[in-house]
Amino acid sequence: MPQSNHDVLYFVVDIDYFYMFYYFSLFYYRLCVSSLPTSSKKMLSLPSKLMNHAIAKQPLKHMLSKHLLAAEVWHKRTLSSKSNGITDTNLKNSVNGKKSVEMKQEPTLSSVDKARQMNLKNQVIDSSLPNHDPQRITSESRKLEVKAKSLLKQIANEKGTDKAAFLYAINTYISQETLYRRGAVEFIYSAMHEMKTFGVNRDLTAYKALLQVFPEGKMIPRNIWQVEFMHYPRQQQCGIDMLEQMEVNGVIPDDEFGVLLKNRFGSTAHVTRKYLRMMYWLPKFKNINPYPIPYILPTDPIQIALFMLKRMCVDQETKYSVLKTTELEENSTQEDTYIVSAQSPIQQELLSKHNCNLPLFVEGPYPVYLRYLQKHYFLLRAEPNIKILRQKKQQEIEEEKEKNMFEWINFFDEDYKSIKPVVSVHEQEDSTILALCITGTCSKSSVQTWIRWLEKSNPNLTTTPVLFKLLSEDHEMEVIGDNRAFQEQST
Amino acid sequence: MCMSKNTLTMPLHNTQMLSGNIGCYICKHLNYQSVAKLSYSRLRHLVPKRCMSSQAEDFSSEVETSLQKADTSGKYVAKKSLPKLKEPIVKNFFLGKLERSMLVYPELTKEELDQVNSVVAPIEKMFSEIDSKSIDANAKIPEDVLQQLKDFGLFGLQIPEQYGGLNLSSTAYARVTEVTSTDGSIAVTLAAHQSIGLKGILIAGTEIQKEKYLPKLASGENIAAFCLTEPSSGSDVASIKTRATLSEDGKYWILNGSKIWISNGSIADVFTVFAKTEIKTSEGETQEKITAFIVERAFGGITSGKPEDKLGIRGSNTCEVHFDNTRVPTENVLGEVGNGFKLAMHILNSGRFSMGSGGAGVLKKLINLTAQHAITRSQFGEKLSSFGLIKEKFAKMAISVYAMESMSYLTAHIMDDYLDPDMSIESAVIKIFSSESCWNCVSECLQIMGGSGYTKDLPHERYLRDSRIMQIFEGTNEILRLFVALQGLQFAGRSMKDTFLKLRDPHQNPLLMFKKRFRRSMGKAIIASTEPDLFEEVHLELEKEARILSSCLVSLGMAVEDILPLYGNKVVNEQMKLRRLADIAIDLYAMLACIGRASRSYCIGLKNSDHEVLLTRSFCYEADQRIKRNIYELTLPGESKIEIDDINRLIADIMFKSNGYAAEHPLARNW
């Protein structure tokens, strides 16, 4: 699978459910907005870096990302109440490393424009300051940002990139800036930017520590005018952005975070209101996923694979086995990898009843995601059991006929089972799924090892032809006939 | 029907029947003082079975023909003279119908009663001396006790006299069970032997098989066991895996497989074994069908596992039985090859009715014991018996026992009085009701005893353990409930198919819909168009109860009328609805039996017959409440009703998805 598309799409595919809900609501808003006059649409302009990227790729994905990003931008604006006042001209003219390009960008730009864009793009990549209000970003704040960045970089070099180093960096900043906390906003933006490299972007304590960079008490509004006109707007906007980043990372603030926020911005400020709204919704969405993923994912690839299979297998009786290829194969040329296999007793039974003359198929690799982790799985399947499905359908039709009304067969009749077919969950209309696996390398040989291993518990498999229909890296199907030993015997 | 209350004019049917001017006890138009002059049994003698206004003529003609037959053959054939049961009882409830004559509670003749009493008296004496506690503790029935049981002929109660049995009628059998049930282990041993173990030979055995096995089984020299349950098939009888294959010379069946939870498994010498056999159908296809075999331990290849360590009925022997290439001669096939499933069902269905009287026997003994405690024990300066809550408990227990007894003896009588009546549903109803009442009543008795009831010093805890099995064996109560409801619904659907089909299609039949609406506004249904005027059959004192019964019948009819057209054949999957329908049917049958019995007792003036009327009154009140609730929950979601069944289904689905209890701990926090 091409990795690059996931950058744009990963938050769509990798679903935490509250996320889905969140973006869908925004998406819906976008649909409503599309009926507005063009001038108001302009407000929903996109950062061009992502835009260009999206346009270059497939149209469908482009559409999707367009909407999502537009929605995101809109969301930021409504929250910060800053959406008015941004026009095309002042965006383009803003020099301070900030830019935003109108959504309806012409695909053919002049070479000068392109060069300027490239230039701007480079600057964008450097800066961690967001582009809500480019006019406010002065050269002073750029300097402060550079200072903050160098501090973080220095500590990362000295102490490594982990949570302790991140907290140390924050403490260092605070101890240096005792009274005025000069450049707090820039420091927080830089730190937020670097959180992923420090591995703390999903860590609530890190966000709490970061919030404490803001001084206490000073920014609390004293009257409703101050409240409504956004007292300390840059600081508040920075706080809102922090909450936003937490949201994106699935971090739900807690009461302590609220206290910290209240001590800094008061209980009525915009940022606190955002916190309150988050605390209303996010815990409600937290456990809404019917197939929950643990907050902290395991690091062991075998455990991850197991987890993925467990989410895929609806049959609760499914048995999971972890295998090592080196232990299974005497052949020393075999690569050393793991295989995680899932098969339920019902699937074994289906396999044992399978007609040996009909081939089975091994298909894959198909992608499966666990939040931002991706793996590939293979499945062993048979052609759908049309007979039983048709029989079931026929039975349903028969039951509706008048002459059969009230002549039902129930479990007090001996023929109950033969007349009423019991269709298991594995017998779907397109195919009958017989087993699933995830291998470490996704290689053909590992899958063959898996099939050989399955033969031990499913003797019927040894006499059944198995066809491997494998997708290669560039999505081309590679069909490999069965070349296992029994075929040699038969020929 | 006689119209005047004050005259002694006979109802038409009775004058025809009796050709005399004596009344039928149930006819309330007769001044009941005049009825009281007549003995119930004399009346019964004159009206041989029932005063059936509709059936009277057919019945008399039947008797006539049987008498004629008797003349020509020169020998009295008892069976022939029995009339056929025209209408099923519980099945008819589902159409909102009930034969009025069913409210006439049957009775034994004086001679029959004396005979039964003479059988029961010595058994009662013997059972009073049995040390149930040690049987329970040692998990074994002592040899001498077993020998005593054999001497009394308790192993051949229903086996005909020609094979050395006592040839008891169902009624007498129920009466004896009442005594033998006072020890759970013995009751189960006996029941496994004759209620199911050898029943197959009685029902389907050939003359040769009967000659060969029944005498030894009747004397208790051989003990029988019933081998049906397997590890993979409990309630699902059709899925058994034990196989029997015909040997090449065609003389033997070779039996392979294992059976579990076989009562008498390690002491039995004769087994009724059910196994899958291949048979050829008329079209030449081979099919797997169940066949029953009589297997002797002497055939070889039979091994029994070690006895199970059970919660209750510890003295009875329960174990696994394995068959390894056991060679069964072809003449030992019970019934026809491939007919085993039906036979198994028949045996199980016919074995259940005695559980009601058995349970009643146990409870009566226990209630007497507990009452003794309540009378003597003082708390707060007052006897326990003076406390309202204790009184309520005793009353409820008495009501349960009364209903159990009434139902089982009504059923037993019908089994005796008619030619092969299908009492499978009634038996299931008795089994469900009595097993659950038993558990509740024993638990209440234990509660009244307080802490001492919880110790092993008193028999209460043993009875509690013993009674638990009743809800499980011989078909679990859940399966039996479905059985009752499905059979009833199927009967209703088949007998009024046209109406239901029309009800399923309201657009084509607007008139019928209008009619239904109209009937509903009158509190009536289409299928149960007339309210059965049952109160005419009972004593005036019980008129109100009979009216309750009538109205409940009609409301069951209404519920069926709603549910069957809605779900059609898919009603099979609506188990929660089926459960409610079965519960209603159970309550109706119990009401029917109670009202009939109380009416009889009151008419003939039995001792404490006014007490019986009170018991009936209380039972009918409670049953009415239960039925109303079930009807309320059954009727389709209307205005603002909560579909409680759907809610429960959702709850369970989530639980199974999360492997058990799904709610978070009360101390859990979300952030």
TrEMBL record, chain A:
GO CC terms in record:
mitochondrion; nucleus
Per the UniProt entry, what are the Gene Ontology biological process annotations, in alphabetical order?
cell surface receptor protein serine/threonine kinase signaling pathway; innate immune response
Its chief place of residence is cytoplasm
According to the UniProt record, where is the region Disordered? 85-109
Give the range the annotation lists for the signal sequence.
none
- Show where the ECSIT C-terminal domain sits: 344-471
| Keywords associated with the record | Cytoplasm, Immunity, Innate immunity, Mitochondrion, Nucleus, Transit peptide
Could you confirm whether the keyword Magnesium appears in this record? no
Q: Which SMART domains match?
A: ECSIT_Cterm (SM01284)
Q: Name one Pfam family in it.
A: ECSIT_N
- Keyword Nucleus among record annotations: yes
Recorded hits in InterPro entries, A to Z, give:
ECIST_C (IPR029342), ECSIT (IPR010418), ECSIT_N (IPR046448)
Cell compartments where the protein resides: Cytoplasm; Mitochondrion; Nucleus
Q: Which domain of life is it from?
A: Eukaryota
Show the ranges annotated as biased composition (Polar residues): 85-97
Q: Which family does it belong to?
A: Belongs to the ECSIT family.
Q: What is this protein called?
A: Evolutionarily conserved signaling intermediate in Toll pathway, mitochondrial
UniProtKB/TrEMBL annotation, chain B:
Catalysed reactions listed for this entry: octadecanoyl-CoA + oxidized [electron-transfer flavoprotein] + H(+) = (2E)-octadecenoyl-CoA + reduced [electron-transfer flavoprotein]; oxidized [electron-transfer flavoprotein] + hexadecanoyl-CoA + H(+) = (2E)-hexadecenoyl-CoA + reduced [electron-transfer flavoprotein]; tetradecanoyl-CoA + oxidized [electron-transfer flavoprotein] + H(+) = (2E)-tetradecenoyl-CoA + reduced [electron-transfer flavoprotein]; eicosanoyl-CoA + oxidized [electron-transfer flavoprotein] + H(+) = (2E)-eicosenoyl-CoA + reduced [electron-transfer flavoprotein]
Extract the Gene3D superfamilies matched here. Acyl-CoA dehydrogenase/oxidase, N-terminal domain (1.10.540.10), Butyryl-CoA Dehydrogenase, subunit A, domain 2 (2.40.110.10), Butyryl-CoA Dehydrogenase, subunit A, domain 3 (1.20.140.10)
For membrane topology, the record states:
Peripheral membrane protein
Q: Check the record and name the InterPro entries matching this protein.
A: ACAD9/ACADV-like_C, Acyl-CoA_DH_CS, Acyl-CoA_Oxase/DH_mid-dom, Acyl-CoA_Oxase/DH_mid-dom_sf, AcylCo_DH-like_C, AcylCo_DH/oxidase_C, AcylCoA_DH/ox_N, AcylCoA_DH/ox_N_sf
Q: Where in the cell is it found?
A: Mitochondrion inner membrane
Q: Write down the required cofactor(s).
A: FAD
Q: Name one GO cellular component term.
A: mitochondrial inner membrane
Task: Enumerate the spans annotated as Acyl-CoA oxidase/dehydrogenase middle domain.
Answer: 225-325
* GO function terms (MF aspect): acyl-CoA dehydrogenase activity; flavin adenine dinucleotide binding
Acyl-CoA dehydrogenase/oxidase C-terminal domain: which residues? 338-485
Q: Where is each Acyl-CoA dehydrogenase/oxidase N-terminal domain found?
A: 133-221
Which Pfam families would you find in this protein's record? ACAD9-ACADV_C, Acyl-CoA_dh_1, Acyl-CoA_dh_M, Acyl-CoA_dh_N
Q: Which UniProt keywords apply?
A: Acetylation, FAD, Flavoprotein, Membrane, Mitochondrion, Mitochondrion inner membrane, Oxidoreductase, Phosphoprotein, Transit peptide
Q: Name one GO biological process term.
A: fatty acid metabolic process
Instruction: Give the superkingdom in one word.
Output: Eukaryota
Tell me which residues make up the ACAD9/ACADV-like C-terminal domain. 541-658
What protein family does this chain belong to? Belongs to the acyl-CoA dehydrogenase family.
Name of this chain's protein: Complex I assembly factor ACAD9, mitochondrial-like isoform X1
Q: Which organism is it from?
A: Biomphalaria glabrata (Bloodfluke planorb)
